[in-house]
Amino acid sequence: MAEERFDFREAEPRWQQKWDQEGIYKVERDPNKPKYYALAMFPYPSGKLHMGHVRNYSIVDVIARFRRMKGYNVLHPMGYDSFGMPAENAAIQKGVSPAVWTKSNIAEMTEQLKQLGYSYDWDRAVYTYREDYYKWTQWLFLQFYRQGLAYKKTAPVNWCPSCQTVLANEQVVDGKCWRCDSDVTKNNLSQWFFKITQYADELLEDLRLLEKGWPDRVRTMQENWIGRSEGAKVAFTLEATGDKIPVFTTRPDTIYGVTFMVVAPEHPIVEKIIESGLIDGDRVTAIRAFQEKMKSLNEIARTSTEAEKEGLYLGVDVTNPFNGEKAQLWIANYVLMDYGTGAVMGVPAHDQRDFEFAKKFGMEIKVVIQDAAGTVDAATMTEAYAEPGAMVNSGPFDGTPNLEGIAKVAAFAQEQGFGEKTITYRLRDWLISRQRAWGAPIPIVYCDKCGTQPVPESELPVRIPDDLNFTGEGGSPLRRHEGFMNATCPSCGGPARRETDTMDTFVDSSWYYLRYADANNAEKAWNPEDVDYWMSVDQYVGGIEHAVLHLLYSRFFTKVLRDMGYVKVDEPFSALLTQGMVLKDGSKMSKSKGNTVSPEEMIEKYGADACRLFIMFAAPPERDLDWSDAGIEGAYRFVNRFYRMVMSALPAYQHARSLLPVHMGNLAGFMGALTEQEIADGLRKAEPNLTPEDKELRRMIHATVKRITNDLHDRFAFNTAISGLMEMTNAIYAYRDKLDAEDWNLRTLVLAEAIQKAILIIAPFCPHLADELWSKLGYQESIHLHPWPDFDENVARAESVEIVLQINGKVRDRLEVPAGITAAEMEQVALASDKVKALIDGKQVVKVIPVPGKLVNIVVKG
RNA sequence: GCGAGAGUGGCGGAAUUGGCAGACGCGCAAGACUUAGGAUCUUGUACCGCAAGGUGUAGGGGUUCAAGUCCCCUCUCUCGCACCA
Questions:
Q1: How many other CB atoms sit within 10 Å of the CB of residue A451?
Q2: Contact residues for A384 (Cβ-Cβ < 8 A; gap 6+)
Q3: How many Å apart are CA A63 and CA A53, to the nearest integer?
Q4: 3-class secondary structure for A414-451?
Q5: Is the backbone peptide bond immediately before A433 cis, with ω within 30 degrees of 0?
Q6: Of residues 316 to 335 in chain A, which lie within 7 A of strand B by their beta carbon?
Q7: CA A659 – CA A664 distance, rounded (Å)
Q8: Is there a contact between A266 and A299 (Cβ–Cβ < 8 Å)?
Q9: What is the DSSP pairing of strand A539-542 with strand A576-578?
Q10: If pLDDT is split at 50, 70 and 90, which confidence band does A707 have?
């Protein structure tokens, strides 16, 4: 008996099959229930699940199961983000087609997900690589195109030499490719973009809607990424050619302090100056050398704060439109072509970076903001003065407080016609072209006569041919596929070339959460009624690495689709939980370090339930979790301890049932289960016979149910919820040992109630174990369709509580007092305590502070 | 450099609103059962001290009857941004 264990190897697959057959996790729209959309970021089908996946999906599964039991209509779907490089690499290396490789990985991962007992509605699975999905990705592209939100332009773009494709800015991390870590270079190419900058302001503003639901960290990261900056644009004049060079500045109030100007080495004005013949050959050679040097450095090396400031005088001067003063024109490493206007005014007195540059190259420092004491002095200053002050040496603005000056100077420039107030963003448009074949082809053809033509919607999808030749050389295989390349122009019917770039896989994942609402629609991307019912996602869970990638793109998509009338929500994800990583020995699991833990082996050894329980118990969800082999052993032991607890209580449970009249619900016979109502009614009858131990167990159970419910509902404190469950289990063990079998009567309902509630609570964490034990109680229907246990406030309330007596804040005694005790009574009993009396003897009681139900602090002197 | 988060026993972590620091688990120790146990059950387990008692939440200071929690300074770690004009 003592060695009895939960036979997970037999029971887990059996329950999985039963759930599948009965379709208990399938979900439809239901106007009579509140809806709840629980979503995990869908995986790339790389082959096998890793522990990070298990953690992510276990968290969402617990949330989904809990909400389901709480009476919500829960949408909990899963799918695969299944376009992308690894499939193509497999094709190149192993000669297997990307589709075959992807499909077999999906099959394997789906099998694993099923083994873990996740409550997905598999009928709603989405697979981005399939025609029935990417047809709609292409359709969405056409909608964007029609709105002018998809456009093609030639620009310097990020190029990953290893992936042989361009990348969006968000996909370049520290100057390296987010996927393969190679150094990214800049290439000038004609590429397709989505105009995400058109939504920059709203994407920033609406972060406020997410204040409650999203972590500060992610909101801040998006805020920084969008990088809104208010200021002014002012055009300086290159007298020699008459060209205007606009600069962007956030400090127009310092414009009278300009002593030089710097442009990016690749700024077009540089070419113009060279072409104009204004400067001699030696200088041209020097400029060329400087440009070459900058080009050879990657972005990080060139623009890091650590890097020494480098610059070169171009030999020409510009004129400040405010005062007509001349300033030297330079190029320098620290000025970036793709931010602002690529040109910066140099105000060394009031900008630290300009100060350092001026010091190094011997430029004049001119003070135009003065502090109250008048101590800012160009001759003695050792760093830029960036504090507030009054404008000086600033013509008509002298005496103006500089913070007011910012707006006034900008307004003046606007009046005079050489500048304007403006806002600059760090955010760039989203480059979506990829020179890869395993993605959704961009539905565009090029006709010599008619130009760029969108593929008509009726001709979608533009299919990826299944006879592509993956060699790894010579660019995308689509380019070499004649059948794909050659198209007819939808406008004139003449011969045309097809666009051979595919879309960034982040386009696929920017709308998959909408497709889940209506996953099998062959006529439309989705039916608005379904999307309106299910959206927005109530709880989204995934890794922090998508803070400015997927999460920003999806927000953008939602806003565009809202403006086009396809969705009604402003934001796709009302609440976001970023789960921590799963570590081993303090560092990230990786094959190269050899510190991986395979979910497969863990499930095989301890079962899915133990695995899920450990991962939910070991750390709060947003924190990193260090995998511990001893820890999962502990979870495994608990699963069995729980199982034994219920099994050993079954005779008492059955005894209680035999004492109750057979109810309608129990007509199935003696194997029928006790309903909550029957237990509650029976306990009411048994009330006079209940011993203090009985009452204490009931109190403990009800109080703990309350606490756990709160942990799960309000704060995703799965770890403390599980510790509560363990405490319940410990209490039931202790109680059971005292329950004398000779003395059985309706009292055994106390135990019946306790185990029933405990099984219900463990259900979201250990779904197989719970259903197994639930059926042992006699229930025919799955526990996962049963409501979450409730608790009775009156039962949960303790009759007496232990209070602490403190003297000067130190604990000196403890007393058992009635729960409803008043502050005055507390004070009285505290001062009556022998221990307290002895300790305060001969001292003066200054103050007595009673805290109801908790403690009394006696402050004494002397 | 800027921004965010974190720092609590041997370890993972708990303390929800300023009110008993260390719940729960791991590990360890002892006992019971046992042919045996790495199974199971029970008990103990922050530190110092024989004890009474004292000390203790990165370090220092402060507010308060009372501080892991609030305020100020310092240190360390993690993450994000990083010459953004």
A1: 11
A2: A348, A349, A350, A351, A352, A354, A355
A3: 15
A4: HHHCCEEEEEECCCCCEECEECCCCCCECCEEEECCCE
A5: no
A6: 333-335
A7: 16
A8: no
A9: parallel
A10: very high
Tokens of A124: 């709603």
Find, among A691, A681, A687, A689, the residue nearest to A657 by Cα. A681
- Judging by beta carbons within 10 Å of its beta carbon (0-12, 13-18, 19+), is residue A810 exposed, middle or buried? exposed
Average model confidence (pLDDT) for chain A? 90
Over its C-alpha atoms, chain A yields an Rg (Å, rounded) of: 35
Torsion angle of C-alpha atoms A625, A630, A634, A640, degrees rounded to 10? 120
pLDDT at A604: 93
- DSSP states of A5-67 as a string? ---HHHHHHHHHHHHHHHTTT-----TTS-EEEEEEPPPP--SS--HHHHHHHHHHHHHHHHH
- On the question of pLDDT at A667 being above 60, the answer is no
List all residues 6 or more positions away from A752 whose beta carbon is below 8 Å from its beta carbon. Answer: A649, A652, A653, A656, A657, A674, A679
Q: Provide residues 533-552 of A with CB closer than 7 Å to any strand B atom.
A: 544, 548
Is the pLDDT assigned to residue A112 strictly greater than 80? yes
Q: Are A75 and A513 in contact (CB under 8 A)?
A: no
Is the N-terminal amide bond of A45 cis, ω within 30° of 0?
A: no
- What pLDDT sits at residue A802? 83
Instruction: Quickly give A859 CA vs B50 C1' distance in Å.
Output: 32
| Residue A211, pLDDT score | 86
Do A855 and A804 meet the contact criterion of CB atoms below 8 Å apart? yes
d(CA A302, CA A306): 9
CA triplet A550, A554, A557: central angle to 5 degrees?
A: 140
Comparing A289-303, A377-391, A719-733, the range with the smallest average pLDDT is A289-303
For residue A805, the tally of other CB atoms under 10 A from its CB is: 22
Alpha-carbon distances of A437 from A160, A301, A570, rounded to whole Å = 16, 33, 33
Instruction: Report if CB A220 to strand B is under 7 Å.
Output: yes
> pTM value?
0.93
Q: Is the Cβ–Cβ distance between A162 and A401 less than 8 Å?
A: no
Is any atom of strand B within 7 angstroms of residue A174's beta carbon? yes
Do β-strands A79-80 and A172-173 pair in parallel, antiparallel, or remain unpaired? unpaired
Work out if A587's Cβ lies within 7 angstroms of strand B: no
Per the CB < 8 A criterion, the answer to whether A428 and A199 are in contact is no
DSSP A72: -
Give the confidence band of A2 by pLDDT, cuts at 50, 70, 90.
very low
How do beta strands A587-588 and A582-584 pair? antiparallel
Residue A40 tokens, joined: 């995990």
Q: At what angle do helices A718-738 and A608-617 cross, to 10 degrees?
A: 110
What percent of chain A has pLDDT above 90?
A: 63
Q: Please give the nucleotide, over all strands, whose C1' is closest to the CA of residue A859.
A: B65
C-alpha A770/C-alpha A687 separation (Å) is: 29
Which of A646, A648, A666 minimizes the C-alpha distance to A779? A666
